[in-house]
Design goal:
This is Family 2 glycosyl transferase. InterPro entries: Glyco_trans_2-like, Nucleotide-diphossugar_trans. Keywords: Glycosyltransferase, Transferase. One of its GO terms (molecular function) is glycosyltransferase activity. Pathway: Cell wall biogenesis; cell wall polysaccharide biosynthesis. By secondary structure, the protein is an alpha/beta fold. It has one domain: Spore Coat Polysaccharide Biosynthesis Protein SpsA, Chain A (Alpha-Beta Complex), CATH 3.90.550.10. The protein is built from ten helices and 13 strands. Strands 1, 2, 3, 4, 5, 6, 7, 8 and 9 form a nine-stranded mixed beta sheet that branches. Strands 10-13 form a two-stranded antiparallel sheet. A two-stranded antiparallel sheet has the order 11-12. A hairpin with a 4-residue loop joins strand 11 and strand 12. Helix 5 crosses helix 6, helix 7 runs parallel beside helix 10 and helix 9 runs antiparallel to helix 10. The longest helix is centred in the C-terminal third of the chain and has 29 residues. It is globular, with a radius of gyration of 20 Å. 49% of the residues are buried.
Length: 352
């Protein structure tokens, strides 16, 4: 089977991350296995859209971009938020595989090569990678447990190493075969991030579960050799953000469980809460007894994270039962005029 063409989608929303955006694009251009193209999808920010269009216009006109793929700048064609931005990128992309990179992250040189290797198996529909934090303060806060690195968008302690089969990939460092979207539709709106205003998530979890329902033979992988480095701003190193984000995760998980059922929606979380987190608390308490810095704080943070996530899940479940599941899944349809696709919104799983 020939190696797939890979389009890379980077969703952006603020000029505050200008240097990070340029660094993210540069890391894609430096890949050992070149991308077919890089798509920058701007989330309802005309000033940023114009600035990026100007920045990459000259680059695309120069011959030196040959082999690294052109950089295309697009406006989010859907409602505000990360899910619709990703769907816009899918719609406009030309590759056999679409990879997603956060706008405040940089990919290591072999990132796309490791993704491509996963697709040598025709049953593989998605491949994710490992995301490492770059702390604004220069080091991990002593109280911050590695088991909760998902709070800052990174790979957390407890995920199995190597190339392994998983229920879902993590959206900031992931790729999907185009036929996955043909089978399951795109990312759902109503969950997922909206700039810095709402720290909800789980849109990739919901999509992956929907994909394996549509294609029961689908294989989803994480390859920890496909590494990106994700910047963690100073505001996210504080305990207040930790509590807010874990609570929001509970709300998001309730939406997903209501839509796809608690069996699949909480399948991975049960192992995480019954095995990974108790072990983390034990390590923290042991470190505290040995007078190692942060041990008691890490144990307390794990307990707090579980409690706040459970509270968010309980409230989210009540809201979901009262109002039904209101997020929308977006089927992706081919458009022969542009060579891309169009995203058409529908309501998925809403209850009477």
């Amino acid at each position: 089977m020939s190696a797939p063409d890979i389009s890379v989608v980077i969703c952006v929303y603020t000029e505050d991350r200008w240097e990070d955006i340029l660094a993210a694009v540069a890391s894609v251009r430096a890949q050992s296995r070149p991308a077919r193209e890089t798509l920058l999808v701007v989330d309802h920010n005309q000033t940023l859209l114009d600035r990026l269009a100007k920045e990459y216009k000259e680059y695309n006109e120069r011959e030196e971009h040959e082999g690294a793929g052109e950089v295309r700048v697009l406006a989010n064609a859907g409602p505000r938020g990360l899910s619709a931005g990703r769907n816009t990128g899918i719609a406009a992309s030309r590759g056999d595989v679409i990879a997603f990179l956060d706008d405040d992250a940089v990919a290591e040189r072999d990132w796309l090569r490791h993704f491509a290797e996963g697709y040598e198996d025709p049953l593989v529909m998605a491949v994710g990678g490992r995301t490492m934090p770059i702390w604004a303060s220069g080091r991990r806060p002593v109280w911050f447990p590695a088991e909760f690195d998902w709070v800052v968008g990174c790979t957390y302690k407890g995920l199995p190493p190597g190339r392994v089969r998983v229920r879902n990939v993590l959206g900031g460092n992931a790729s999907f075969r185009r036929t996955a979207f043909d089978a399951a539709g795109g990312f759902a709106t109503g969950i997922g991030r909206d700039g810095d205003r709402r720290p909800l998530g789980c849109e990739e979890t919901e999509l992956c579960i929907r994909l394996t329902r549509a294609r029961p033979d689908a294989v989803l992988l994480i390859d920890d050799r496909a590494v990106i480095h994700h910047r963690v701003p100073e505001t996210r190193e504080h305990f207040a953000y930790f509590r807010t984000r874990t609570y929001a995760e509970g709300l998001s998980k309730a939406l997903v469980a209501r839509s796809v059922g608690a069996g699949k929606g909480l399948e991975s979380e049960r192992r995480y809460t019954t095995r990974v987190l108790p072990a983390g608390v034990a390590r923290g308490l042991r470190d505290a007894l040995l007078a190692r810095p942060g041990g008691a704080g890490r144990a307390a943070a794990i307990v707090t994270g579980v409690v706040t996530a459970a509270g968010g899940y309980a409230l989210g479940s009540v809201r979901a039962r009262r109002g039904g599941t209101t997020f929308a899944a977006l089927p992706i349809e081919r458009n022969s005029r542009t060579g891309g696709t169009d995203a058409i919104e529908r309501t998925e799983g809403a209850e009477p």
